[in-house]
């Protein structure tokens, strides 16, 4: 089982007991904008997803890890997605779901842990992320970790009746 340990948090592989936490996140309409979700997920689908979460990153082109604090409480998720091993790149996304855990450095620590893993264990050359133009917290997090804005996608996402721009950021190791 994959576990990456930091000073205040750790990242670990998903387990069957994470069903309720993931169900809550995936069905929270207030954050659907982050994942382009448009419909709720059933417990059955999430259970099926968790049963397949052990599959190899090279097969499924994705790695989702749970972020837990020192008290072993689930506080968020971090993902590598669209893994392209031929071109040595992947997308990265993070969510600190627990509101009391936000803006305490946990996202920064999780991002650093997964970036290090992506470089040293997966031999990736670059990571990219997509962040809404008005998400200053996430923009600061990624820019403070060496990501550069390389493009602005105009009217990229249709959210609550209006279009929003989205930045594409890239980090080359």
From TrEMBL:
Q: What is this protein called?
A: Diamine N-acetyltransferase
| Signal peptide span | none
PANTHER family according to UniProt: GNAT-FAMILY ACETYLTRANSFERASE, SPERMIDINE N(1)-ACETYLTRANSFERASE
In this protein, which residues make up the domain named N-acetyltransferase? 9-170
Pfam families for this protein: Acetyltransf_3
Question: Which organism is this protein's natural source?
Answer: Bizionia echini
Output the lineage of the source organism: Bacteria, Pseudomonadati, Bacteroidota, Flavobacteriia, Flavobacteriales
| Tagged with keyword DNA-binding | no
- Top-rank taxon, per record: Bacteria
Molecular function GO labels: acyltransferase activity, transferring groups other than amino-acyl groups
| Keywords for the protein's UniProt record, in alphabetical order | Transferase
């Amino acid at each position: 089982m994959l576990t990456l340990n930091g000073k205040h948090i750790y990242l670990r592989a998903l387990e069957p007991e994470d069903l309720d936490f993931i169900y809550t996140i995936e069905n929270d309409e207030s954050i659907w904008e982050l994942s382009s979700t448009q419909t709720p997920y059933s417990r059955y689908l999430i259970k099926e997803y968790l049963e397949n979460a052990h599959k190899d990153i090279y097969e499924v082109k994705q790695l989702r890890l749970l972020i837990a604090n020192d008290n072993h409480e689930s506080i968020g998720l971090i993902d590598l997605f669209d893994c392209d091993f031929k071109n040595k790149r992947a997308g990265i996304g993070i969510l600190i779901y627990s509101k009391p855990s936000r803006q305490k450095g946990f996202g920064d620590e999780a991002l650093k842990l997964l970036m290090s893993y992506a470089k040293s264990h997966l031999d990736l050359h670059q990571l990219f992320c997509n962040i809404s133009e008005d998400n200053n917290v996430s923009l600061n997090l990624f820019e403070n970790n060496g990501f550069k804005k390389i493009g602005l996608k105009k009217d990229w996402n249709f959210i609550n009746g209006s279009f929003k721009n989205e930045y594409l950021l890239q980090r080359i190791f």
